[in-house]
Amino acid sequence: MSAKETLPPVGGERVGARRERAARIVAALHEAYPATRIALDSGSPFQLLVAVILSAQCTDERVNQVTPALFEAYPDASAMAQAPLEHLEQLVQPTGFFRQKAKNLLAGAQRLVEVYGGEVPDTVEELATIPGAARKTANVVVAECFPDNISGIAVDTHVQRVARRLGLTRSWETPKIEADLLRFVERGEWRWLTHLLIDHGRAVCKAPRPLCEVCPEPIAGECPSRGRAAGVRGRDTRGARSG
Ligand code: SF4
């Protein structure tokens, strides 16, 4: 979809009705993607934080190819805080933007050691102060590692596109999209929603052309864009995550 794409309106849908429709969509997504999970490999909150930082502008598959050697050399914040910058750059080079990412990883590990005793904080607000970890990264780490503290929903390019097409939001702006999803989706599903929308975006509701003809009926039947969002190229056609 592009910024110019006009999606069909979810005409006159009241808040309660949209919540009910959102619940049906989430249930259908669970049915379609029963094994949904985060695609990044990690063995601790610290390693997940690192993997999510590396996934900016990079595919999860590429990150998973890089992190085994990185975590073998620097398994925790204390170890990474002592790493030579050049070695970090070398290890994360295949993920792109490697100089900035290595710099952030080093500064982030040092901040974790200095401020949090080497542990990863368990709130979005604290996590968002770690170099390289914007709100989306913080939301992912809290959802996966500290679900009792969940307060947000990570929005990437797939979530943005699929949520818009499904009529769960009308916005292009990440903060507004997140606010709409928080408003219309039950809290117990916040943890899963990002992965479900990413799975659906990769498998069926693709950019630039959604495969509406093979979209499971329980999802397509709730979608105001069914058969109407095809063939439009635009700014969210990347396969990699952003932000
Ligand atoms: S019906 Fe089409 S636009 Fe709607 S969710 Fe399915 S693939 Fe996406």
What does this structure look like?
This protein is mainly α. The protein folds into two domains: 15-36 and 152-220, Endonuclease Iii, domain 2 (Orthogonal Bundle); 45-149, Hypothetical protein, domain 2 (Endonuclease III, domain 1, Orthogonal Bundle). Helices cover 53% and strands 0% of the residues. It contains twelve helices and no strands. The radius of gyration is 19 Å and the shape is elongated. The chain starts with 14 loop residues before the first helix and ends in a 23-residue tail after the last helix. Residues 1-5 and 231-243 have low confidence and may be disordered. Bound molecules: iron/sulfur cluster.
Helices, strands, pairings?
Blueprint: H1 15-32, H2 45-54, H3 60-73, H4 77-81, H5 85-92, H6 98-116, H7 124-127, H8 135-145, H9 157-165, H10 174-184, H11 187-203, H12 217-220
Helix pairs in contact: 1-11, 2-8, 5-6, 9-11
Q: What's the CATH topology label of the largest domain?
A: Endonuclease III, domain 1
Q: What is the CATH superfamily label of the largest domain?
A: Hypothetical protein, domain 2
Strand content: under 5%
CATH architecture of the largest domain: Orthogonal Bundle
Number of domains: 2
Gyration radius over CA: 19 Å
CATH classification, class level of the largest domain: Mainly Alpha
| Arithmetic mean of pLDDT | 90
User: What's the assembly state of these chains?
Assistant: single chain
Number of helices, counting only DSSP H or I runs of 4 residues or more: 12
Query: Describe the biggest sheet?
Result: none
Number of extended strands: 0
SSE series: HHHHHHHHHHHH
Shape: elongated
Q: Percentage of helical residues?
A: 40-55%
- C-alpha termini separation: 18 Å
